[in-house]
Automatic annotation (TrEMBL):
The species this protein was found in: marine sediment metagenome
The protein's name: 3-keto-5-aminohexanoate cleavage protein
Cited InterPro entries: Aldolase_TIM, BKACE
TM helices/strands, residue ranges: none
GO molecular function: 3-keto-5-aminohexanoate cleavage activity; metal ion binding
Coiled coil: none
UniProtKB keywords: Metal-binding, Transferase, Zinc
Cofactor requirement: Zn(2+)
Length: 201
């Protein structure tokens, strides 16, 4: 509704069987604020999740055309090098928003040493967050918050498990991560504050 201040993220993810043009269709949503941008391909289970450099360039150009800010999804360190390429080309402007993707099979396994390496590679004027595939609890989410994460993502796309039991809804996951973050001393941003943090105001 017009009264809802939720931030909308358009995804260029989808299936590798879709064309780059089909995967860019969500960017045409006039209400989209940010867009997920996978910065490289990944061996995922028994298949390859395809995100080539020409695909990424096409999606970036679509984001620019539609006024959508990219959220760069990082599967490994080479993806940051690809981000640097587009920053140098001027297709990505500061502030730079990154998400580190951990624990998807054949992707990066989470560790503090890998996290510190990724953080050290980011350009100035960057913020970062984390995504955990198939997590059983929220310990890693809280740990990365203490390491400086601005953004934390939960939801059925990543894991349906909430503290070792199956959640009934995304809302259940959100309520639980909020509870644990607040117990740990963190204050959550409201939608207006989140827009400022994400650089979309």
């Amino acid at each position: 509704t017009n009264e809802c201040s939720v931030i909308i993220e358009a995804s260029t993810g989808g299936l590798s069987s879709l064309t780059p043009q089909e995967r860019a269709l969500p960017l045409q949503n006039k209400k989209a604020d940010i867009g997920s941008l996978n910065m490289g391909s990944l061996n995922f289970l028994d298949k390859v999740y395809i995100n080539t450099v020409p695909y990424i360039r096409y999606w970036l150009q679509s984001m620019i055309k539609n006024g959508v800010k990219p959220s760069m999804e990082i599967f490994d360190t080479s993806n940051i090098a690809i981000s640097d390429l587009f920053i140098k080309e001027g297709l990505i402007k500061p502030q730079y928003n990154f998400n580190f993707i951990f624990n998807y099979k054949w992707g990066m396994s989470f560790s503090i040493s890998i996290l510190e390496l990724l953080k050290s590679m980011l350009p100035k004027e960057s913020i970062w967050g984390t995504v955990f595939g198939e997590s059983r609890d929220f310990k890693s989410h809280i740990q990365t918050s203490f390491q400086g994460a601005t953004m934390i993502r939960v939801g059925f796309e990543d894991s349906r498990i909430c503290n070792y039991r199956e959640a009934k809804s995304n809302l259940e996951l959100v309520k639980e991560i909020r509870r644990e973050l607040e117990i740990s001393g963190f204050e959550l941003a409201d939608p207006e504050e989140a827009r400022k943090l994400l650089g979309i105001i």
